[in-house]
Amino acid sequence: MPTLILVRHGRSTANTAAVLAGRTPGVALDERGAAQAAALPGRLAALPLAAAVSSPLQRCRETLEPLLAARPDLPLHVEDRISECDYGDWSGRKLAELTDEPLMTVVQQHPSAAAFPGGESMRAMQARAVDAVREWNARIEAEHGENAVYVMCSHGDIIKSLVADALGMHLDLFQRLHADPCSVTAIRYTRLRPYLLRLGDTGDLAGLAPGEPVPDAAAGQDATVGGGAGAP
Predict the structure, then answer these.
(1) If we measure between CA atoms, which residue out of 225, 204, 203, 207 comes closest to residue 216?
(2) CA 63 to chain centre
(3) Is the pLDDT of residue 227 over 70?
(4) In this structure, are residues 46 and 5 in contact, taking their beta carbons and an 8 Å threshold?
(5) Minimal CB count within 10 Å: which of 54, 171, 176, 230?
(6) For residues 214 and 42, what is the distance between their CA atoms, to the nearest angstrom?
(7) Measured between alpha carbons, how far is 219 from 142 in angstroms, rounded to an integer?
(8) What whole-number distance in Å separates Cα of residue 41 and Cα of residue 21?
(9) Is 168 helix (H, G, I), strand (E, B) or coil?
């Protein structure tokens, strides 16, 4: 199955202002975020990307613009299910003022029980994102083969929840994960299990280019990318 390159959007004006943006419209990349996005085509240059999939939010679309300009033949697809968590009434509020909300402790320590007022639960957020990735994996494999690589630009909590799913980690532990703005997280999916190849990587990504399939030590048949026998 394909290798998924998850890109968190570049630093945004909401990140700079320490605001919980959520799905608030008009949140763009700041100057640093634009520079991070401009560097993305070079970082991904060694990877034969089959497609780009983006959250519908502006900051994700802006993050992919330089990559799409550098690869005019790369198709872009917008996927609503990888949009930011719907924080409901919390959207647009300063993070500092949310610290004292009783729900914030639940969000940080027991996220599987957290549901945002007027928004969605974190369980629902993870479920829709995982469903989207599984469907995109099947589509990319059907159209481009099992060794295909594709990029998906989304948001921090979405990416962390996808990594938790790939690792078989309970959602209550996902706050232990971290992905910086415009960092790359790579997951190689196989028939029997996913492999986490990168988490929050801000450096060179040439090692993720597809090579000769390596048998999975446990199954004896599934392929991994970028590692020795039995290791991703």
Answers:
(1) 225
(2) 13
(3) no
(4) no
(5) 176
(6) 27
(7) 22
(8) 26
(9) coil
- Its pTM stands at 0.87
Site of tokens 């497609």: 51
Give the per-residue pLDDT at 203.
78
What is residue 172's DSSP assignment?
G
- Which run of H or of E encompasses 156? helix 156-167
Query: What do you get for the CA distance between the two ends of the chain, in Å?
Result: 13
Alpha-carbon distance of 153 to 192, in angstroms, equals 25
Count of CA atoms in the C-beta half-sphere (13 A) of 94: 4
Task: Read off the pLDDT of residues 4-21 as tens digits, 9 standing for 90 and up.
Answer: 999 999 999 999 999 999
The residue assigned the tokens 């962390």 is 160
Torsion sign, CA atoms 12, 58, 88, 137? negative
Give the residue-averaged pLDDT of 126-131.
98
Is the confidence at residue 158, as pLDDT, over 60? yes
3-state SS class at 154: strand
What is the total residue count of the chain? 232
Local structure of 170: helix, strand or coil? coil
Distance CA 183, CA 40 (A): 9
**Pair type for strands 3-8 and 149-154:** parallel
Question: Residue 85 — pLDDT band, cuts 50, 70, 90?
Answer: very high
Of the CA atoms within 13 Å of residue 207, those in its CB half-sphere come to 12
